[in-house]
Design a protein that fits this description.
About 25% of the residues lie in helices and about 15% in strands. The chain is α/β, with parallel strands linked by helices. It has four domains: about 40 residues, no CATH class; about 250 residues, Rossmann fold (3-Layer(aba) Sandwich); about 220 residues, Dimethylsulfoxide Reductase, domain 2 (3-Layer(aba) Sandwich); about 140 residues, Barwin-like endoglucanases, CATH 2.40.40.20. Strand 6 and strand 7 form a beta hairpin.
Length: about 850
């Protein structure tokens, strides 16, 4: 028998494609042609099924949905009801748009690698496709499939029981921004769907401190009276100096087109400085002066800079006298004359310790000459943007870092001017943020505690002092009553994986009577739930995407595909639960109608007309309040509306140029805080412990100057990774092929420990232990190690996390103002033989089998 012709595509790997009938069929289907002569004949074959061309697909404009620091356009290309690929903004969609249009006024909203990978998450093996209930021990990850009736009836009955038995604080709301900044569908601590649902039900303990930036939020509210302290990113293009303090915009954008405008600044001669324990990709991209600093010592270095500016008379005294309270003796309010002001603190009048650059150098590890050089550069360069990012505020007393940075921004007169910066929180141009369903009972609670103190509260109830958990008094009747938490509801959050001291959380969750997880994907949190509810993704429901904290545009989010499996939207689920609860509890009369005024019980089966009505009404508000003339129908057709501003949005421009008052008690920038100065009993506040009225350096409870450094000689920081949004996208193989979870350490430290890149190491302290590969580099300062947050935990029976989640090592002790101590970690490390389990993509086994096998 004659051997058929064979085309050798890769002789080195002996890959063969036989031109048999199957190969001919592939060729006919795709028209592919391999120009390889074999026995004098061409080989007509295609080694894979061809991609659909654009004219074979339906194109739908939508957006990303997550809390990533931006909000970009996604363009879904679908065949029938399946998305086969995703692209992004190419300029053609807005008014007057054409392919390639990309201007300073209307830049393209290009998605990053996370958004572009979303199809892999949408169709992942971890999608939750139907309701499930736990059948094994909590945390064992064994579930069975149940009907929606069974799941919702169980939840509703249990909610009524818990409220009746334990009171209005029994259910802890642990919603967060897993699905964020949609008009209708929003998981949020404050204005989200769950907050409203539990508040109207009458049983909710709130988590008031925001993990990302609570110290920053407190600082901005005390100092400026608002968290709307950010310029739009186009203002960066006018800066002559940008100091990226703890900010790595290559990884965390803080705006939709940050790099675009910063590149413009670079082209116009702007100088860049990075203050960070790591030499980041952003430092490399902008050829920045890198100043490595010991973690948790940023406030000390800023104080040293302030001392240099004051003693060399480089402050903008005219600006200080006109707009600032408490910068010096002359700007103190009459009622506080004689109390400590900022300048006298810096010069050492009160404690006989001048905060000189030399003093700061001993604390922060930055040479005094570099502190002086940076202070001189910042004070003499106008306009200059000191971007005080959130990372250094995620520390013990992180609020003091942000307050100190605000003091320097004010003393140099860089607030309210184009090219300067008052950030802080960084919220910029204000969007129309909510639709009608959120107007009533948006944030009602009967107990409110610091987010990472819930486990402490559960484990020690009732022997808990209010200051231990940051209890925020609601009213006289409940004031001082510690919440009796018996249930947790996770909504759009993976907090069990993301909050501090996970081993302590695990002990606490075992004591609860109900744990509900509503999500589109199984998560480490979900494996500890009693009930799993399958949530439709933003591709499977109708909404409008709002910008993140910056960005002046709206993106339409149509229902691109039908919900997969039995998925429902959060709005459907909470509406349906309201109707069931009002049948169980007569006091909840008309709860369903009050929660979702435009709907009736048929919303469960057909939400589209109601969602459309809400969004159409919201667009009319946009037209009325923001001067938009585009119709709702045209907006849906185009998919995006980009505002063109008359001038770059600059925070506090009106206060400086038009003498409008700041939203503080004094109407000025308050370096001396009226709010803090007037508190007499700190135990009766949500802070619990004293906070100085002016910014100060306060020694952290763990840092490189602490006595415990003898046992734990490395300071760990846990910044955000580029390839995840917190824990979202951790299971995406495309991203995991590019990056892996690893601990970064300095080459000199690695040499002493005998560690080379790729070695598996164990990292531990008194709170836990993790196992992770090492990455050795000169881009991290000695004594500091870096382990990115968000990896899905994989805990063994001894409590060791084999995936490398740093929150097994963090301390659940926040600062008085609520700043999370994510980066306040002392650890030790060594090479190990302990098992490292990086994730299902490396193991070639989906984690989904854990809970599907028993369904």
């Amino acid at each position: 028998m004659k051997t058929p012709p064979v085309a050798i595509l890769n002789p080195a790997r002996r890959s063969f494609l036989k031109t048999t009938a199957a190969g001919a069929a592939l060729s006919a289907a795709g028209g592919g042609l391999l120009e390889m002569a074999l026995d004098g004949k061409p080989a007509n074959a295609f080694a894979y099924a061809p991609h659909y061309t654009d004219d074979q697909l339906t194109t739908v404009v939508t957006s990303c949905d997550h809390n990533c620091g931006s909000r970009h356009m996604l363009v879904a290309h679908k065949k029938g009801d399946v998305i086969v690929r995703l692209s992004t903004d190419d300029g053609r969609y807005q008014i007057g748009g054409a392919f390639g249009k990309d201007t300073v006024a209307e830049p393209q909203l290009r998605a990053c690698l996370r958004g572009r990978s979303y199809r892999s998450r949408l169709y992942s093996a971890e999608r939750i496709l139907y309701p499930m209930m736990r059948v094994g021990e909590r945390g064992e990850g064994k579930f069975k499939r149940v009907s929606w009736d069974d799941a919702l009836n169980h939840i509703a009955a249990k909610m009524v029981e818990l409220k009746s038995k334990y009171g209005p604080t029994a259910i802890l709301d642990q919603a967060y921004a897993g699905t964020s900044y949609g008009v209708l569908h929003k998981s949020d601590q404050i204005e989200g769907l769950l907050a409203r649902f539990l508040g109207m039900f009458g049983c909710r303990t709130n988590s008031w401190s925001v993990p990302s930036y609570q110290g920053t939020t407190a600082s901005s509210r005390w100092t400026f009276g608002t968290i709307q302290d950010g310029n739009e990113d186009d203002a960066f293009a006018y800066s002559k100096l940008i100091i990226m303090w703890g900010w790595n915009p290559a990884y965390t954008f803080h705006g939709g087109n940050t790099f675009y405008y910063m590149r413009l600044a670079k082209q116009q001669g702007c100088k860049f400085v990075v203050v960070d324990p790591q030499y980041t990709d952003s430092a490399a991209a902008y050829d920045a002066w890198w100043i490595p600093i010991r973690p948790n010592t940023d406030a000390a270095m800023l104080a040293g800079m302030a001392h240099y500016i004051f003693t060399n008379k480089l402050q903008d005294q005219e600006f200080i006298d006109g707009y600032v309270q408490g910068m010096d003796e002359g700007t103190m309010p009459d009622w506080a004359k004689g109390q400590e002001n900022f300048k006298d603190y810096i010069l050492g009048k009160y404690d006989q310790t001048p905060k000189t650059p030399e003093w700061a150098a001993q604390i922060c590890g930055v040479p005094a000459d570099d502190i002086k050089k940076l202070a001189d550069l910042y004070a003499r360069t106008k306009p200059a943007a000191l971007k005080a990012s959130w990372g250094p505020g995620r520390n013990a007393y992180g609020e003091q870092y942000n307050r100190m940075a605000a003091a320097l921004q004010a003393m140099t007169g860089n607030i309210g001017i184009l090219g300067g910066s008052a950030e802080g929180v960084g919220k910029g141009w204000h969007a129309e943020s909510v639709a009608y369903p959120y107007d009533e009972f948006a944030n009602v609670w009967w107990g409110s505690i610091k987010s990472d103190r819930w486990a402490h509260c559960v484990l020690n109830y009732p022997n808990v002092k209010r200051e231990e958990v940051g209890l925020w008094p609601r009213d006289d009747e409940l004031d001082g009553k510690i919440p009796n938490i018996k249930a947790i509801w996770w909504h759009g959050s993976d907090w069990f994986n993301q909050l501090t001291n996970i081993n302590k959380e695990i002990e606490a969750v075992k004591k609860l009577e109900l744990v509900v997880c509503a999500d589109s994907t199984i998560t480490p949190s979900g494996l500890w739930a009693d009930v799993l509810l399958p949530i439709a993704t933003h591709f499977e429901r109708h909404d409008v995407a709002l910008p993140w904290y910056k960005g002046h545009y709206y993106i339409h989010r149509p229902k691109t595909i039908e919900p997969m499996g039995e998925s429902k939207t959060d709005f459907q689920i909470f509406t349906e639960l309201c109707y069931r609860l009002e049948k169980l509890d007569p006091s909840l009369k008309d709860l369903g109608k009050r929660y979702n005024p435009r709907a009736d019980p048929s919303y469960w089966d057909n939400p589209d007309p109601v969602d459309e009505a809400y969004l159409d009404a919201w667009w009319k508000r946009v037209q009325e309040h923001q001067g938009v003339t585009m119709s709702w129908e045209e907006f849906k057709q185009r998919g995006v509306y980009k505002f063109i501003l008359d001038q770059p949005h600059v925070a506090f421009r009106e206060q400086i140029e038009d003498d409008e008052p700041f939203e503080t008690p004094s109407g000025k920038i308050e370096i001396f805080s009226t709010v803090l100065a007037e508190i007499t009993d700190w135990t009766k506040t949500q802070y619990g412990y004293p906070i100085p009225a002016i910014p100060k350096w306060i020694e952290p409870f763990e840092w490189m100057g602490h006595a415990s450094v003898k046992e734990y000689p490395f300071h760990m920081v846990s910044p955000h990774p580029r390839w995840r949004t917190h824990s979202i996208f951790n299971n995406i193989p495309w991203l995991r092929e590019t990056y892996q979870q690893e601990i970064t350490l300095n080459a000199s430290d690695a040499r002493k420990l005998g560690i080379v890149t790729g070695d598996i190491v164990e990292v531990w302290n008194a709170r836990g232990k993790v196992v992770v590969p090492a990455y050795v580099t000169e881009r991290c300062m000695p004594g500091v190690v870096v382990l990115h947050e968000g990896v899905w935990m994989d805990r063994d029976r001894q409590g060791v996390d084999r995936a490398g989640n740093p929150d097994f090592l963090t301390k659940d002790e926040p600062s008085p103002a609520g700043a999370f101590a994510y980066n306040t970690i002392l650890v030790n490390l060594k090479k190990t033989n302990l098992e490292h389990r990086p994730g299902w993509d490396s193991l070639a086994t989906s984690r989904a089998y854990i809970f599907r096998r028993d369904a």
